[in-house]
Amino acid sequence: MPPTLALLLLALSLSAAQGSGLCHLTNATISAEKDDCPLCVTFTTSICSGYCHTKELVYKHALSTNSQKVCTYKEIRYDTIKLPNCPPGVDPFITYPVALSCDCNMCKMDYSDCTVQSIGPEFCSASRGFL
Prior knowledge:
elongated; two-stranded antiparallel ribbon; mainly beta
């Protein structure tokens, strides 16, 4: 095998291995609950996961802006589930976003958890049920 072809194949395999952590769709188990309903329901949906290339400024000053992009939803749809055993008068339905495609962009706080640390997608304060 010619050396240039071997180097090209090595470069392609390394970039494929590094690309596996880039922003992409993945399945995740999340939980849903309401204060007045006795059960927390756990289900699987698609989310965006992975990292985005960022640059850290070497020289920072008060007038510079440095915006970090995160792996977030590019396209979404909304699905609805019904929580079981909710008492009369309590709306048992919860609507949540489902990722259809992902993108490296600014965090969209209206439907994303943009915190550094959170309680996690599977946290429940009520008894757990499954869908």
